[in-house]
Amino acid sequence: MSVLNTPNPDAEDRGVEPLNEKSLRAQDVQEQRLLLSLATPAVLAVIAIVVIPVGWLFYLSFTGSDGQLSLVNYQKMIEYKSYARTFVTTFEVSILTTLICIMIGYPLAYFLAMLPERLAGFFMLAVLLPFWTSLLVRTYAWLVLLQKNGILNDFAMSIGLWDSPLKLVHNLTGTLIGMAHIMLPFLVLPLYGSMRKIQRDLMHAAANLGASPVQAFWKIYFPMSLSGMVAGSLIVFVLCLGFYVTPAVLGGGRVVMVATQITAILENQFNWGAASALGVVLLVVTMIILTIATKVFKLDAVLFGKR
Amino acid sequence: MKTNTKGIKLGALIAASLFNVGQIQAADPITVVSWGGSYGKAQDAALFTDASRNSGIAINRESGASMSKTCLQVESGSVSWDLVITGSGGSASAAAKGCLEKIDYDVVDVSNFLPGMYTDYCVGTDVFATVMAWNTDKYGQPGSSTAPKTWADFWNVKKFPGTRAYRANNVDGALEPALMADGVPADKVYEVLSTKAGKQRAIDKIRELKPHIAVFWGSGAQQAQLMKDGEVDMITGWNGRFDNAKKDGAKVGYTFNQAMYDFDCMAMPKGAPNKVTAMKFLAEISKAEYQANLPFHITYGPTNKKAYEITTASKELIESLPSHPKNVPLMLPVSLDFYAQHRTEALEMYMELMSE
To answer: Which residue segment(s) compose the domain that A158 sits in?
Structure first.
């Protein structure tokens, strides 16, 4: 609010008459009020859907099975190594998926951004079509493709690419393939958007001034596409952290992520407290990582438009 | 005045009768929740559809039965389920948490039930076994000289080279085979498992096999799918699922030897919206006439003894049921007491192994 109410410093610099300045300020306040009132439903919704449940989650995580306040749920996470390992796996899978998405998604978005807009729209369909298909269907489709006697192994063995079936699924490999496929549009869409906004004349200008195409790309194009890439990567990374279906189906029980463990605790122990504690730790660790990443990579510039 | 009162009385009577009729017609259908895959279909075909028609009780069928969801409904005070299928162990845990209604045995007749197939909070619907199954192309038909026979064979990757599948993220029925493979006699298994060292012994034994476990399965439907696709060579799982997979063309066989004998049951969430009607429906599906049809759809044994007398199933089919007197002595009955007391610790230890 304090930011919103700061008087416009430009007014004084330009030496505007006090009367005018006053009415401008009044208009300003009025506009802020209007905007605030328009935002009220969204703010209330966020409080109702996010703040209250997360608060409840925090509270539950500090209750034992008898309903009394206790730290038992957090003590258990230290006592059994499985919890720490699950967190490591979760972050490992999320980071790897994000990296794979960047490696595949960046050239793809670049290609789309270079095409004339109509053609790009057509190719964009190829990115979006799977996006509109049920996640479960796509996950099982990968299972059919990748399993021991699956389509890929059968085909590769029939043409003699390899002799015995490769282990492509029911492990980390399969999980990453499936997750990268599902997450790709989340990276490509914001990245494509930011690339479309880059003036192509800038590249010509760089070339004109003697930059090689590689230099022009890294010095001009890449930094300008960074905001889209960071936004997309963050969406992918955060979505991966809570993923359940794909690792459960394609991981073959070997890729135990936090969501899997939460389910195991709920299904077998009906222990809301222990499950909530896992959720709280995931939330806190994620926030810490994002805060550090923002500081280290100076993400606030690209994310919030600060200079 | 007199005629008036009469008129009112008559009107009230008509209204009351109309209201009554209306109430019967508008009686909410009860919500019956089972599992997916061939199990739910078998229950529909044998129990639910016929029982609903004969008793006139309308039902809503839902899938995805789970005791944790039941408890969540009860604790949040918004119960929408009336009857929920569960494993015997799950019902014991849910009952201990106060999530279940007591069964009214004045309504549900269990006088002809097999011993131990009902509890205060759950009425048995079928007897199943957690067995060892394998790809018959790879290791031969059950009973043949090359086929695996014991849990020790399941662990013996030299004599039976190939991949294995084992239970994921759930400890029910996962520790017992490991101990039997390690040489513990069946009747001593739960005694050994009651100590932490005993549980560790089982976990260590599974760790030994872990490099050969290609997949950890999470559901009965997945057990069937893994065997149909030939994804693994040997697997643990529920006998009926394998028989149905075989009907679908899977090359799968299994043995009851050293299997774990258990039952599924119907429970009622505490505060179920249609308690009285649902209890009547539970009584209906517990009758022998419906249970007698179950083996045609899945090879799980009826819990009602009379069903074995009146069923038209062939001798061969009856002998293939886990509850057949020929098969029962081969198996280890699952101990509800063990799971009531040790499930939490056992699961934590199993999750340690899973996450390694």
So the answer is: 80-304
